[in-house]
């Protein structure tokens, strides 16, 4: 089976997303600043989503299928099902995906050195 890698540091980062049962590729965040209204990152905090900061964005929850994750310090880890994402339209109506993150568990922080971790689907690291 072929392996596909999706890295945020790519010149035009993309993420696979499952929306309404269909697998699609979406722009990953706004690092390239193609949008003037969206945040210039690829992540958003679970707390900000649940707190309503994205309520007017027209965003929908999506699943990001993945088998492995790579943290910025080069640490790979296994993902059982996937990660939750928020798919929002930019000012031109183009879909942009933000990976939803939450504060890192103690184990994840020790393993990766990161203070945040993805919001895993049905899994806790």
* Strand residues, percent: 35-45%
Tell how many strands the DSSP assignment holds. Answer: 9
Oligomer status: single chain
Q: Mean pLDDT, rounded to whole units?
A: 94
Rg, nearest Å = 14 Å
Helix content range: under 10%
Largest sheet: 7 strands, mixed
Kindly give the count of domains: 1
Shape: globular
**Beginning-to-end CA distance, first to last residue:** 26 Å
What series of H and E elements makes up the topology?
A: EEEHEEEEEHE
- Helix count, DSSP H or I runs of 4 or more residues: 2
| Unreliable residue runs | none
Structural class: mainly beta
Folded structure, characterized:
With 125 residues, the chain is mostly beta strands. The protein has one domain (14-118). The protein is built from two helices and nine strands. The strands form two sheets. Strands 1, 2, 3, 4, 7, 8 and 9 form a seven-stranded mixed beta sheet that branches. It has a two-stranded antiparallel ribbon with strand order 5-6. The chain is globular.
